[in-house]
UniProtKB/TrEMBL annotation:
Membrane topology designation: Single-pass type I membrane protein
Keyword Disulfide bond attached: yes
Location(s), subcellular: Cell membrane
Organism in which the protein naturally occurs: Oncorhynchus mykiss
Protein name (database record): EGF-like domain-containing protein
Domain EGF-like, first and last residues per copy: 89-125, 387-426, 673-710, 972-1005
Region (Disordered): 1015-1040, 1153-1175
Keyword NADP: no
């Protein structure tokens, strides 16, 4: 055996200890050790290494690995380390042991789990009889009194963060504990099983916990909310027992025998109180000579109450009524906290000494230090008779014990009233108030009918989480309905009739509306807004309060129109806002003037109701009263809504109070036309004074019928800010950003859009991927997932269906098909941090910026050829780049523009803070700016009319325009990928086929790469091709003749022609041919020495194999035809495999070299026009075949 504390202490068989000590008198800090064959291996903390040496002599010491961060345990994994053949001394039945069987040298021994005692030689007790429970914040342990060594054992629990209070339910076998970090009450079986959260809402600092084991109730104190609450043991039927005159309540204990509960309070006036277990008969029993009264314990035998005081450093006791008070221990205590009692001993925890100590409960004797923490309370259950045991005491909900003679009392969950029979709770609260006392939350409530079912929902905004959420009144069905585009949502209002929610946002300076589920979101008001406090809807009108330099109260229709200032004088901070529909009056609370005022709904007859009020915030009405929250007094107050008289405090000691809302379920909802069939609107129906108004979501225009909307804007901006992609419509004037719900965004840099498939493409440099998705967030897929480092630029060729990107980390420019296939590196030399990239598909150009050591802007063809530096002077960090496809200019860097050749350079805007990306639409150039955190625009012609489109956006990155006009035009690769098998790159008057860097399963060919000549007097267009193909020029002195050929493919029953010129290989040319033509349809070659025209396609018999295949006929009757093939005929034609050749002269072709012939013109054409050629005209067909690859459509 080897000992790993020090290698010099290792012993192996007959090797003496002195030998190793003499060979290695000291090692820096050996930690773990293992052995294999003739070597020892150990870890060393000091040298941070793994070392080895001979296991017999200690020589041949060497370092196996070094530079390790605190190497710990080490083991050798090999079958030799666990040799077979050993005898299992425990046998096949675990030696007859109930738990552990441990083998010895000759026999075995039965052992028990930690703390469990043996009942005989083979069996252990099934449970602990006597034990202490204690919490060490991050774990909960038990100390067994069943064995002499009193060991402690960790209970296997998950996610214990900061456990404080503990209790134990002996009959159910559950341990209960509070966690003041997770603000929850939890329970689990003593072995760690069945762990669950019992209560985890509306808790702030639950520091005390007590189990009523008789009625299975759970009591707790909360020093954060200053409340004492109770629930069933599983957390159900929760209700508040005591909430007033509490100031930091700490520990709590219950006496189910007497029906009382006791708690300590160490607030400003420390005390110990007693009350019935349903909160009756509350009295203070100890209030003098207390500082920090902490733990409590009940001695049921002597009817005494014990407590610790961390400030007085004492342990005291007295009778249950506080009489006969005595100090038990007044010395040797540092900071006592928890307290419990068992038989004749007290046990307590001490925070300062970090220990559990004990002493006799009657007299001061020796104080023994044990461990740390708390323990259970045990009373023989047979001695307690509960009046709640039979039929729950007759209660419909909660039955709580009470002092004699009553014995028990029925109560209801929070917010539900007990009916007159004193036993039954109402089915629901008729009139309620909801208030929030977190520092960033505002709430409102609504009720109504949905799908024939009555719904009662609570809506609230959280400015810390930047969300609007909702839940049922009981806390279930919680969901976030608005989770994007919010900054500081100060006001919230619900239209329960039209099922709309309105809110104000001081961060975005907007008033918005949406359906109650958050859909159909629309900006109503965004102009001439300062800082506002509240918004409240009433009938067909919406009323807002504003406070800032010019505080005011405004009113508008609920569709945002007909704005009217009601009150603008003698206002400071108008916060709360409420409408008394019965009295037709508007009420508001002003924290600056310290008044609650009222006026009629037109702003007239203004009067003061309550003054002074310290700092009112939320305001609501219920019945004849107004209710408001006050920040300074930390209270909820009430007064008469008509006179302001009879002001009383309903709740106090509520720090951070915010909004308050009252709900009267008996109040009728009312009706308007939007409540029936959505008012006939396709999207949103908003009430207005004259009836209803149909509206569209933000950025979408209402159609001419004034009722329906499109699904998306026609023209809009898309921009990224690392963790989101957003849209700004250019169809409307509000320029509101709308989040595009693309999932899993981590660090989005570059964007582009494909208008053909409606896909958004983007790069994420945290994940090193290129992805695409639909704009509704669906269909997200990764198209490039490997070989990326920092993809800063991305451009989609919407014509050829390729995408290009720059990789700053790898200094490359690459291309692939839009699905990520056929990937190819185009440029990888003379690049130093390439950034933005743009394509001009109809011109066949590729542009990019490079802001490396020598900043420049370059251009190349789409295949990377003909590379040219356009601009390399007066550049710093050329970031954004965009193309104006109308004027054929490029713009970028410091908002400078030039033509596509880098000439006519013009500075549009300078200086610009820190522009990053830019784009262009109509007369505007748009760009993102890192320093100003904004999107701005300027006139592209003059550089004037600079505007801020959107402000206060962190992490702005790329920006693009999505418009049908933006992605127009075509090129020679636009149809069937130019006939290329993989990649097709259009050039100005030609195109080339290319193969990917990594071959795939498809055969790749660049055969149809070539030059497509244009007419000398016009650019290539989509006009019809001439019926007659020009002859190839011949000159015997210049070598082989040029063989002009055309290939055709059937694409959607349209015959598409392209013209190419090739040299016939030397030696295979017959000088007798002067008018040669090669015609190819899906691999069919046709050679004629006459000037032929396209005949009826039905007469051709193609071969699909593409190798040494030809067709031969003696004569061909020529007749132009406009007839097209139906689907069946086309399929038959393309599948036919026959080849009619009277003779085959197979040539061995060499590489065919493409030659450019700009003097000839052949453009893509549809079916030939119908005209009659010379009837009976015949041509002799010569026999010739080439080795051709078939390119199918």
């Amino acid at each position: 055996m080897y000992l790993s504390r020090s290698l010099s202490l290792s012993v192996f068989l007959s090797l003496s200890l002195s030998v190793l000590l003499s060979l290695h008198p000291g090692l820096p800090h050996p930690f773990a050790i293992t052995v294999f064959e003739d070597s020892l291996y150990w870890t060393d903390w000091h040298t941070k290494s793994i070392n080895s040496a001979n296991k017999f002599t200690g020589k041949n010491q060497e370092i196996i690995r070094n530079k390790l961060h605190f190497p710990m345990e080490i083991h050798t994994l090999h079958p030799q380390r666990q040799p077979a053949g050993g005898r299992n001394r425990c046998g096949t039945n675990n030696g007859g042991c109930s738990h552990l069987c441990l083998p010895g040298n000759k026999t075995y021994t039965c052992n028990c789990p930690t703390g469990f005692k043996k009942v005989d030689q083979h069996n252990c007790a099934l449970s602990l009889d006597k034990f202490l429970l204690f919490a060490r914040r991050t774990d909960i342990r038990q100390v067994s009194f069943d064995t002499e060594d009193m060991p402690d054992d960790v209970i296997p629990l998950a996610n214990v963060r900061n456990a404080v209070a503990l209790d134990w339910h002996a009959e159910e076998g559950f341990i209960y504990w509070t966690d003041v970090t997770t603000d929850s009450i939890n329970r689990a079986q003593w072995d760690g099983s069945r762990q669950e959260v019992v209560v985890d809402t509306s808790l702030e600092s639950p520091a005390g916990l007590a189990i009523d084991w008789v009625t299975n109730k759970l009591y707790w104190t909360d020093a954060g909310t200053d409340r004492i609450e109770v629930s069933n043991a599983d957390g159900s039927m929760r209700t508040i027992l005591i909430w007033d005159n509490l100031d930091r309540p700490r520990d709590i204990v219950v006496d189910p025998i007497g029906g009382y509960m006791y708690w300590t309070d160490w607030g400003v006036s420390p005390k110990i109180e007693q009350a019935g277990m349903y909160a009756s008969s509350r009295i203070v029993i100890i209030s003098s000579n207390l500082t920090w009264p902490n733990g409590l314990a009940i001695d049921y035998q002597t009817q005494r109450l014990y407590w610790t005081d961390a400030g007085m450093k004492t342990i005291e006791f007295g009778n249950f009524d506080g009489s006969d008070r005595q100090v038990l221990i007044s010395s040797q205590l540092l900071q006592p906290f928890g307290l419990t009692l068992h038989e004749e001993k007290l046990y307590w925890t001490d925070w300062q000494s970090r220990s559990i100590q004990s002493s006799n409960k009657m007299t001061v004797g020796n104080i023994y230090q044990i461990y740390i923490a708390l323990s259970p309370t045990s009373v023989p259950h047979s001695l307690v008779q509960s009046p709640c045991a039979v039929n729950n005491g007759g209660c419909s909900h909660l039955c709580l014990l009470a002092p004699p003679p009553k014995g028990s009392s029925c109560t209801c969950p929070t917010g539900i009233n007990l009916q007159l029979d004193g036993k039954t709770c109402a089915h629901g609260n008729i009139a309620t108030m909801s208030y929030y006392y977190t520092t960033s939350t505002h709430c409102t409530t609504t009720h109504g009918r949905l799908d024939g079912m009555c719904v009662h929902m609570l809506y609230w905004s959280d400015s810390t989480l930047k969300k609007v959420s909702r839940a049922n009144i009981n806390g279930t069905a919680h969901e976030d309905i608005i989770a994007t585009g919010l900054i500081t949502t100060d006001g919230l209002a619900v239209d329960a009739v039209c099922r709309k929610i309105y809110w104000t946002d001081t961060g975005t300076n907007r008033i918005e509306v949406a359906n109650l589920d958050g859909s159909m979101r629309k900006v109503l008001i965004w102009q001439n807004l300062e800082r506002w406090g509240k918004e409240l809807e009433f009938g067909c009108q919406s009323i807002k309060t504003y406070w800032g330099e010019h505080a005011k109260l405004e009113r508008s229709a609920m569709d945002g129109l007909d704005r009217l200032v009601l009150i603008s004088n003698n206002l400071g901070w108008p916060n709360g806002l409420a409408i008394d529909s019965a009295g037709s009056q508007l009420l508001w609370a002003d924290a600056h003037t310290e008044r609650i005022e009222a006026a009629d709904l037109n702003g007239l007859n203004r009067r003061t109701l309550v003054s002074p009020v310290q700092h009112p915030y939320g305001l609501t009405l219920l019945g004849p009263h107004i209710y408001w929250t006050d920040w300074q007094s930390r209270s909820i107050q009430r007064a008469d809504k008509t006179t302001g008289a009879n002001t009383i405090t309903l709740r106090s000691n509520l720090p951070g109070l915010m909004d308050i809302q009252a709900v009267d379920r008996e109040k009728p909802l009312g009706f308007n036309k939007c409540g029936r069939r959505n008012g006939g609107c396709s999207h949103m129906c908003l009430p207005c004074p004259n009836g209803t108004s149909c509206a569209c979501p933000t950025g979408i225009l209402l159609k001419g019928d004034a009722r329906s909307c499109d699904d998306s804007p026609e023209t809009y901006l898309l921009f990224s800010n690392r963790v989101s992609v957003r849209r700004i419509s250019l169809d409307t004037n509000d320029h509101t950003d709308v989040h595009v719900p693309v999932p899993e965004l981590h660090n989005v840099i570059s964007l582009d859009y494909d208008s053909v498939d409606g896909k958004l493409y983007y790069t994420d440099v945290s994940l090193d991927v290129i992805r695409r998705a639909n704009l509704d967030g669906t269909g997200m897929e990764t198209v490039i997932s490997q070989g990326l480092k920092t993809t800063d630029g991305l451009a989609v060729d919407w014509v050829t269906r390729n995408m290009y990107w720059t990789d700053t980390g790898r200094n490359t420019i690459e291309v692939a098909r839009l699905d990520g296939t056929s990937r190819k590196v185009l440029v990888n030399n003379s690049l130093d941090e390439p950034r933005a990239i743009a394509v001009f598909p109809s011109k066949g150009y590729l542009f990019w910026t490079d802001w490396g050591h020598i900043a420049k802007i370059e251009r190349a063809h789409l295949d990377g050829s003909d590379r040219k530096v356009l601009i390399n002077t007066d550049l710093g960090w050329p970031n954004g780049l965009t193309l104006d496809y109308d004027t054929r200019r490029s713009s970028g860097w410091m908002l400078t523009c030039s033509d596509l050749n880098g000439k006519l350079r013009q500075i549009l805007v300078s200086p610009v803070s820190h522009p990053f990306a830019l784009t262009q639409q109509d007369r505007w150039i748009y760009w993102t700016d890192w320093q100003t955190k904004s999107i701005q625009r300027v006139d592209k012609h003059t550089g004037r009319s600079k505007e801020t489109v959107l402000a206060n956006v962190e992490g702005l990155m790329d920006i693009i325009v999505v418009s049908a006009q933006r992605q127009s035009g075509t090129n020679h690769c636009g149809v069937n990928n130019g006939g290329c098998s993989h990649l097709c790159f259009a050039k100005t008057n030609s195109f080339v086929c290319a193969c990917p860097d990594d071959p795939d399963s498809r055969l790749c060919s660049t055969m149809f790469s070539g030059f497509v000549p244009t007419s000398p007097d016009r650019e290539t267009t989509s006009t019809a091709a001439p019926n007659k193909i020009p002859k190839a020029p011949t000159d015997p002195q210049q070598g082989p003749p040029l063989i002009k050929y055309s290939f055709a493919r059937v694409t959607q029953l349209t015959l598409v022609l392209s013209s190419f010129s090739f040299l016939l290989p030397q030696g295979d040319w017959d000088s007798g041919y002067t008018k040669e033509k090669i015609r190819i349809v899906e691999g069919v070659c046709l050679l004629s020495n006459e000037e032929l025209y396209w005949e009826d396609l039905k007469q051709l018999k193609p071969s699909r194999s593409g190798l040494h295949k030809c067709m031969h006929t003696d004569t061909v009757s020529l007749q132009a035809s406009s007839a097209s093939l139906d689907d069946g005929e086309t399929e038959q034609l393309l599948q036919e495999e026959t080849s009619e050749c009277s003779s085959i002269n197979t040539l061995t072709p060499t590489i065919i070299t493409p030659q450019r012939h700009p003097q000839h013109s052949l453009t893509p054409a549809g079916p030939p026009t119908e005209r009659q050629l010379s009837m009976g005209e015949q041509g002799n067909i010569s026999d010739i075949c080439f080795t051709l690859y078939t390119f199918s459509s």
